[in-house]
TrEMBL record:
Provenance organism: Actinomycetospora chlora
Comp. bias regions, Basic and acidic residues: 371-383
Keyword field contains Signal: no
Name of the protein this chain belongs to: Acyltransferase
Keyword terms: Acyltransferase, Membrane, Transferase, Transmembrane, Transmembrane helix
Segments crossing the lipid bilayer: 12-37, 49-71, 92-113, 149-170, 177-196, 202-223, 235-253, 259-276, 297-318, 324-348
Pfam family, one: Acyl_transf_3
Domain Acyltransferase: 11-344
GO MF term set: acyltransferase activity
Classification of source organism: Bacteria, Bacillati, Actinomycetota, Actinomycetes, Pseudonocardiales
Coiled coil: none
Region (Disordered): 363-395
């Protein structure tokens, strides 16, 4: 459990590919409109690849539990709790705030010249929910402003609840108990949405919390398994590639059967556990320099791609790129996604993160285990005793 120190690189790399899947989901309607011949490729992605977001929740639960398992084994005090929340917030809030400001400015500017940029929200309650990261707590009528923020909002609630969620997971102290806990956690969203429906509205803005909390807890259970048993993680590590392919196969199977691809998560989620063992060809692919860079850019790409697609669609559409030119339009949309993500990362995410971290005084004493966020060096990473299993993750 302490073979090495630092990050599990493949858990950083996989974030980049999951973010690209989310981009493909939102690019799909624009691509189909520009080049109808791409319908066979993009239509299944549009309707079924949203499962990538659920894997993000699993990954988040795994990583946060790795870094903070002993910190929140019992109530650590308001100071430690506040530093934890501030560190997590610094990971994405600067980019979120910057994108939201650009969106508001663009909408107001477009209205001044008689145009309209689709954003689905108002300057009152909808904007306030975006600012306070409560847009993904359910009860909304639609996705507004920067739509993908609902998932970060739902994950933010998981962070707020960590003093309650973490002790529940740590109470599972046998292999059987952890496996049952994992299955129960996966059942929370699957049972809930089997009753109320898997439609897009329900699982995103109307009632997304069962989805976020359930799969976050599932990831936490996978991390807990590393501390109560080695046989299952080692077995998963020996078949990382086949396990990932089995998860993908189940996603394809459920989509062809007309079922929600969310049903594939109990198997697909095990890929996170397997990658933690750092074995096999898939781990090597996800640990390459390209994959690591994609993982580093994932937050910025995730937060900027929908505003870019909506704004650029005013210029890149079937009227301006007719016929075979539609393929060029798709390429320009995709290149724009990557450029916007890179600029947001370089100009906003890293500087904003440093500024937010500088506002918090470093703790004199370190928590019992290291924090696993690669970019939390200023506040949390110094708080660690390296070499434990919890030190080796990648969110």
């Amino acid at each position: 459990m302490s073979r090495g120190k630092g990050l599990i690189q493949s858990l950083v790399g996989i974030r980049g590919y999951l973010a690209l899947v989310v981009v493909a989901v939102h690019l799909a309607p624009f691509a189909i409109a520009l080049a109808p011949a791409t319908r066979g490729f993009f239509l299944p992605i549009w309707h079924h690849a949203y499962v990538a977001l659920d894997l993000f929740f699993v990954l988040s639960g795994f990583v946060v539990t790795a870094g903070y398992r002993t910190v929140f084994a019992r109530w650590p005090g308001w100071s430690v709790y506040g530093r934890f929340l501030w560190a997590r917030l610094s990971r994405f809030y600067p980019v979120h705030l910057a994108v939201l400001a650009v969106l508001v400015g663009a909408v107001l500017g477009a209205r001044a010249i008689g145009r309209e940029i689709p954003h689905g929200g108002d300057l009152g309650v909808d904007l306030l929910r975006q600012l306070t990261l409560t847009s993904g707590w359910g009860g909304a009528d639609a996705l507004t402003w920067n739509g993908p923020v609902w998932s970060l909002s739902a994950e933010w609630l998981c962070y707020l609840l960590i003093p309650l969620l973490q002790p529940l997971v740590l109470a599972l102290r046998t292999r059987t108990a952890v496996v049952v806990g994992y299955l129960v956690a996966c059942a929370i969203p699957l049972v809930a949405y089997s009753v109320i429906g898997f439609d897009d509205g329900t699982i995103t803005y109307a009632m997304p919390l069962p989805r976020a909390i359930g799969f976050f807890l599932a990831g936490a259970c996978l991390q807990q398994l590393l501390h109560v048993d080695r046989r299952l993680p080692e077995l998963a590590g020996r078949v990382t590639g086949p396990l990932a392919l089995a998860g993908f196969g189940l996603i394809v199977l459920t989509s062809n059967l007309g079922l929600s691809t969310m049903y594939a998560l109990p198997v697909a989620g095990l890929t996170v556990l397997a990658l933690g063992e750092e074995r096999g060809w898939l781990d090597r692919v996800l640990s390459t320099r390209f994959s690591m860079l994609a993982g580093e850019l994932s937050v910025a790409v995730f937060l900027t791609h929908v505003p870019w697609l909506l704004g650029s669609s005013l210029l890149i559409n079937p009227r301006t790129f007719p016929g075979a030119w539609g393929w060029l339009g798709i390429v320009l949309l995709l290149v724009g996604v990557l450029v916007c993500g890179w600029l947001a990362f370089v100009l906003v995410e890293r500087p904003g993160q440093r500024i937010m971290r500088s506002l918090v005084k470093r703790p004199r004493r370190a928590p019992a285990e290291p924090v696993t966020e690669r970019t939390e060096e200023a506040v949390e990473e110094r708080a660690a005793s390296p070499g434990s299993a919890g030190a080796r993750t990648g969110r």
